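Backbones bend. Our protein:
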Amino acid sequence: MELLAPAGNFEKGKYALLYGADAIYIGGKEYSLRAKADNLDDEDLSIIIDFIHSLGKKIFITVNIYPHNKHLPGLEEYMNFLGTQKLDGIILSDPAVFSLAQKYAPSIPIHMSTQSNITNWQTAKFWQNAGAKRVILARELSFNEISEIREKCPDLELEIFVHGAMCISYSGRCLISAYFNNRHANLGECTHPCRWKYSVME
């Protein structure tokens, strides 16, 4: 079992690791759903990777936006850069990003994000057959459903959220943030309406 923690920046990631996490996940300055976090500059990434590996820990990078056409040229260049790094995994959710990862960073394991809505074992096996090493299951699943996926996919790494926000959406694919505030959750700009206080009004 591996305890994985988010890191909005390297300092937070370092504390997570020093206090018991086995691995962290963090975004770069672009293409991550945590666009408002400090995240990592490309220049710092290799230094941070070496430090984390010196602790015997792991680092995964998130490239989990749902890209539009305008994002594709930059994504291709970014994935080519990631392919030169000693990352332990790339967390992604979109098939286009998946294909870019396979093309430009073939040595780095692919982890399918919870944003990819994996709610059954057939979907989990689909991504495994496509080349994913790990799937991060949808947050809506019950213990029994998770157990069945484990039974049907015994040689696939499964990741499960145990703490965090439950979006007003389906596995984090939120539209309400864009509707209220014109900030798109699926491009990393979520205003977290799942955490607001609401009143029921007639």
